[in-house]
## 1
Amino acid sequence: MEQKIFRDFLGQRGLKLTRERMSVLREVFSFHDHFEPENLYMRIRESGLKASRASVYRTLSLLVESGLVRKAMRTERGNVYEHRFGHGHHDHMICDSCGEIIEFYSEKLENIQDEICDSNKFKGVSHTLEIRGICEKCRK
Amino acid sequence: MEQKIFRDFLGQRGLKLTRERMSVLREVFSFHDHFEPENLYMRIRESGLKASRASVYRTLSLLVESGLVRKAMRTERGNVYEHRFGHGHHDHMICDSCGEIIEFYSEKLENIQDEICDSNKFKGVSHTLEIRGICEKCRK
DNA sequence: GAGTTAATTGAAATTTAATCTCAATTTCAG
DNA sequence: CTGAAATTGAGATTAAATTTCAATTAACTC
């Protein structure tokens, strides 16, 4: 499924389907949550697959270009990614106290953004909205 | 004006008002656009003021805590800041082709975000919305 | 299959933003 | 003024991400 997409993507660009790239792809899709490159690298090594740190970073870029993965946000320390398997567009709320990430999606919000783009004659392609605050648990 | 605010802020925390901090403050407010720490540091040196890179970074953090400056966004290469002098809250549209940054503000958008927070029992404190796409000029 | 070639890999070096260290300096309350 | 405590700066350090380059490998051709 995602393999076919990636394979096609590589094919179109004359890139090769290597063992390392497959390892990264597989590991990215084996886990349904946000992840950081370093951590992905660790998981790959632990599960006995192989791919150097350099390959992990390089493959991650390809995955983003292919649309299979998106850069979800940039934290103080590096990027956070997420794959897009049955994972439509959404935005994030981040608790400043415990770090929890809550995903949400609002049609209204999307529509208003479209309106705003129109009224600025801007062709919106993507967006990132990050709301920071305190989650329910931490408020108690 | 911003000096008074900063002075009070420092006072409340038992921090000192140093020449270096004043240099940073002054330079930050002398220019009404987004800026990066490195370039702020350069501007300070060029205008004959003094403050080491370390002090620039340290002061910038204080300015953010005091509310005089906000971290506008995180780019691939570091943070982008902006001061808040007659500069209410707003979000950004960034042209992927020419890099232009368009600021906008929408009451509707703010309201919907509040609704979303409420329905998630999340206490929203701040947010960043960044819409990427192509601006009017570049579309031609 | 074997041969060819361009893409890929990995370990280590490099880059770059940002933070930290610590001796010397400066602020400011009394 | 004086002294205690905060601050400074040059350079070291950290950490994410990228680059280097010789060795390896995928995949196309015959």
## 2
Amino acid sequence: MSRVVLKDVAREAGVSINTVSRAMNDRPEISSETKERVLQAAMKLGYKPNKFARALRSNKAEIIGVIVADISNPFFAPIVQGMGRKARCLGYGLILQDTGEDCDTEVEAVRTLEYEQVDGVVMTPVQTHKRAVLELQDTGVPFVLVARHFADLETDFVAADDAQGGYLAASHLIERGHTRIAFINGPDYNSSARERMAGYAQALDEHAISVAPELIRQPALTMEDGYAHTMDILARVRPSPTAFFAFSDYVALGIMQALREKKVNVPIDAAVVGYDDITFSSCLDVALTTVRIPKQEMGEVAIQMLVEKLERKNVGLREQIKLPVELVVRASS
Amino acid sequence: MSRVVLKDVAREAGVSINTVSRAMNDRPEISSETKERVLQAAMKLGYKPNKFARALRSNKAEIIGVIVADISNPFFAPIVQGMGRKARCLGYGLILQDTGEDCDTEVEAVRTLEYEQVDGVVMTPVQTHKRAVLELQDTGVPFVLVARHFADLETDFVAADDAQGGYLAASHLIERGHTRIAFINGPDYNSSARERMAGYAQALDEHAISVAPELIRQPALTMEDGYAHTMDILARVRPSPTAFFAFSDYVALGIMQALREKKVNVPIDAAVVGYDDITFSSCLDVALTTVRIPKQEMGEVAIQMLVEKLERKNVGLREQIKLPVELVVRASS
DNA sequence: TTGTATGCGTTATCAA
DNA sequence: TTGATAACGCATACAA
């Protein structure tokens, strides 16, 4: 029993092949009664369109390539989840490429997806080099960057409003009475790091607090980084800061570990504010105050944007969206 | 400038279309010099094979469907990561479906993947119903279950050796001098829960400790479950257990929260052992002793198994693999 | 409104 | 060793 194809349905319904085609893709040029008859026949035989043939004809597979830096990072996972949900709604499949935050793998991923002939690509770029993005532009495949973007590159993207995030976090700490607020920030090549710094500085400025260079530490990406910077600050900076603002919840975790070791009580002796609001942050011994990024939504918006590009063909338009973030106050501040 | 196809390369090299095809797929029936010339021409023109045409012809897309219960669960994410890595090595792409641990979505996912005409499927089944698996069997698409399986269903699967895991955890606690070991286990429909219970019971039995029914609690899947069961145990069971073995690190987190609230010091007054070894478990205030499942490897093995089925066509063979687990002792026990 | 015929780019079958 | 030609299943331009 081989696969049921258009020809079989045509024979069953006593019509031609392309009448069946018309019925299946409900085009206007067909009488409702023949259409009905055809659909009956299709149903009866259990017809399923052959995706490969359709793709060959139309040169579209209804597949979107997703290049993600690290799916096992609880920051990215919900983003991908959001993508999946939206893609499903819009009738697209997602083909996944994990780069492990590695540049070469990222370039490799772009090539693989080109080979896969995906309709479009969404990608959370590793930002140390922009080779992959440039290559992506060369292929001509429509794409949208997610979560991270390049200030000096004209691409579509959807990201978080990190200037706002930095501002909210710093303002919150200032309201709590802190004036010496350490900022353990990400590396400068990271778009988010730069924007959060701007927001942080603005908040301090509005309260006439000067930015103390010895309290700004970079780069920090991991828990270990957070730990090391904090240890260094506690050892060498006087007066010690009474608050720590971290580039990510991961980094905040390292900060809290260092504070614990140095018997600095959180939040009594020092406040800590993280960033991202990954799942675990609310489960900690001392639940973490953090800046929540709408991760699922970010993924959804990215897919939405891409599909609009794909289907409406509004090629010229540059869409650059920054989603609002939200301060979530918990026990650590 | 439209796409370069076989015909273009053929013209450039001065040969026929299918000589080019032979060269590209390096078949034996071609002289090495013409082959060389063809490859030169292909390179020069930048030929890339059309995946859709190839798929139509061969009825294979070299795509594997992945149905995962919850990609934002730090237990599943590394599994998917492992799958991605192995799939890439073997020349397959991964198309992702997240079910959100929901049965209906799972059935939906199976249908979608059938529609996508994937070559095969790997899936971490939601175990409350087996409808999706049955439907998957009906489609005839080769598949492998991952992480979870059904005792009463003859399918290929790769999972963790949970009997061993339960045994290791309980033995460890016994060695530490505990005899009243609470087991906050998963629901009985879960294959892992049943097998871990067996391992736990065996360890107790070997040390002539009887299994106390009041210390066995089910079902627990979330942190909240762990919290609730622990609170109940602390309130009503005497003598109180001196150790807690959790179905997952998540559940353990709930247990630890309850203990903290009740001023039970870990590990002085009570030991806690989790399961899975998700990333965060080592970052906790009191780092969690746990049973490590080789998550990445599990994903890799699943893909490996599936691809062998696909390519070797060894349909008859049932492969059921249980990967060894490892006890990771940290501060909580 | 319906049917005929062609092409999408490959691979496979046959002759040459 | 090579080349002409026929599928694969669908969609569309064109004819009826």
